[in-house]
């Protein structure tokens, strides 16, 4: 991706753990790499089609002077996120906060922290089989819309599917959502768990009914293998109720382990299961 580089932007601010730093302040120097499309404005010569680096510099200065943090790690993290939220054309940012006057009682040249942050693309599966199912799915989508660290890009149509397991329960309503997010996979998991709790989700019966179920299906091209989080979702390739709505919005998204697109995974599954997603399938619902 193309890049706009800003070097040695001087900002006087009040960040630091020591009381003297909080009172007297000091100079910081900021280096920023703003990853964005330069080709389009390069061809049009139109300022509106690029990231205005003057405005970006003013934003960094304003953000760092109006906020106070103990750690330059926090300065870097929050300023990077602020830039990504403020300037939609910035897709990724690498930010270095230099602190040449850090309180170190030894000769040194500089102390700096560098972070690289971006908008990641994630796909979520949503499902409900209690109460007003459609309302619960819409509540999940609204919860994502209302979070400044998420941007909802596309929502699939909802499909009805039969439940799996020995527990007698109503049919499910399922869909998929594409989002851009500043969260890491673990942070996004915490977010979707909060949305589930707000919808009254409980986990008392394995494979039992639930007001709202949200699973992270894909997250960029990442492979995550943690005790409480597996990405790609370990059974997405077996589930029509995931693949059919996902195919509506992201047929060319690639499974990073199988190296197959969503449409190819759906083709592999459909000959074995004659179901169009209209209520005739009986695949296992999302993991508790």
TrEMBL record:
Pfam families in alphabetical order: FolB, HPPK
Keywords tagged on the record: ATP-binding, Folate biosynthesis, Kinase, Lyase, Nucleotide-binding, Transferase
SMART domains named among the record's database cross-references: FolB (SM00905)
Biological pathway: Cofactor biosynthesis; tetrahydrofolate biosynthesis; 2-amino-4-hydroxy-6-hydroxymethyl-7,8-dihydropteridine diphosphate from 7,8-dihydroneopterin triphosphate: step 4/4; Cofactor biosynthesis; tetrahydrofolate biosynthesis; 2-amino-4-hydroxy-6-hydroxymethyl-7,8-dihydropteridine diphosphate from 7,8-dihydroneopterin triphosphate: step 3/4
Reaction it catalyzes: 6-hydroxymethyl-7,8-dihydropterin + ATP = (7,8-dihydropterin-6-yl)methyl diphosphate + AMP + H(+); 7,8-dihydroneopterin = 6-hydroxymethyl-7,8-dihydropterin + glycolaldehyde
GO MF, one example: 2-amino-4-hydroxy-6-hydroxymethyldihydropteridine diphosphokinase activity
Gene3D superfamilies: 3.30.1130.10, 7,8-Dihydro-6-hydroxymethylpterin-pyrophosphokinase HPPK
SUPFAM superfamilies named in the record: 6-hydroxymethyl-7,8-dihydropterin pyrophosphokinase, HPPK (SSF55083), Tetrahydrobiopterin biosynthesis enzymes-like (SSF55620)
InterPro entries the record matches: Dihydroneopterin_aldolase, FolB_dom, GTP-CH-I_C/QueF, Hppk, Hppk_sf
Role played: Catalyzes the conversion of 7,8-dihydroneopterin to 6-hydroxymethyl-7,8-dihydropterin.
Family membership noted in the UniProt record: Belongs to the DHNA family. In the N-terminal section; belongs to the DHNA family.
Protein name, entry field: Bifunctional folate synthesis protein
Organism, as annotated: Eubacterium segne
Gene: folK
């Amino acid at each position: 991706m193309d890049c706009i580089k800003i070097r040695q932007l001087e900002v006087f601010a009040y960040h630091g753990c020591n009381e003297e730093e909080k009172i007297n302040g000091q100079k910081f120097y900021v280096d920023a790499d703003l990853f964005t499309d330069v080709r389009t404005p390069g061809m049009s010569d139109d300022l509106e089609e690029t990231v205005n680096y003057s405005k970006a510099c003013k934003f960094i200065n304003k953000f760092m002077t109006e906020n106070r943090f103990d750690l330059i790690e926090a300065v870097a993290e929050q300023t990077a996120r602020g830039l990504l939220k403020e300037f939609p054309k910035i897709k990724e940012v690498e930010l270095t906060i230099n602190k040449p006057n850090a309180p170190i009682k030894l000769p040194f040249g500089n102390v700096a922290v560098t972070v690289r942050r971006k908008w990641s693309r994630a796909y979520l599966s949503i499902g409900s089989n209690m109460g007003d199912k459609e309302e619960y799915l819409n509540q999940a989508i609204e919860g994502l819309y209302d979070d400044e660290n998420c941007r909802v890009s596309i929502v699939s149509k909802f499909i009805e599917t039969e439940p799996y397991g020995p527990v007698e329960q109503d049919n499910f309503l399922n869909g998929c959502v594409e989002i851009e997010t500043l969260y890491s996979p673990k942070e996004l998991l915490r977010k979707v768990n909060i949305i589930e709790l707000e919808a009254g989700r409980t986990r008392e019966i394995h494979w039992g009914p639930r007001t709202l179920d949200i699973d992270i299906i894909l997250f960029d091209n990442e492979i995550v293998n943690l005790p409480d989080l597996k990405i790609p979702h370990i059974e997405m390739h077996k589930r029509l109720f995931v693949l059919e709505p996902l195919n509506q919005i992201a047929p060319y998204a690639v499974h990073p382990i199988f190296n197959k697109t969503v449409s190819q995974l759906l083709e592999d599954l459909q000959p074995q299961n004659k179901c169009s997603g209209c209520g005739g399938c009986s695949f296992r619902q999302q993991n508790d």
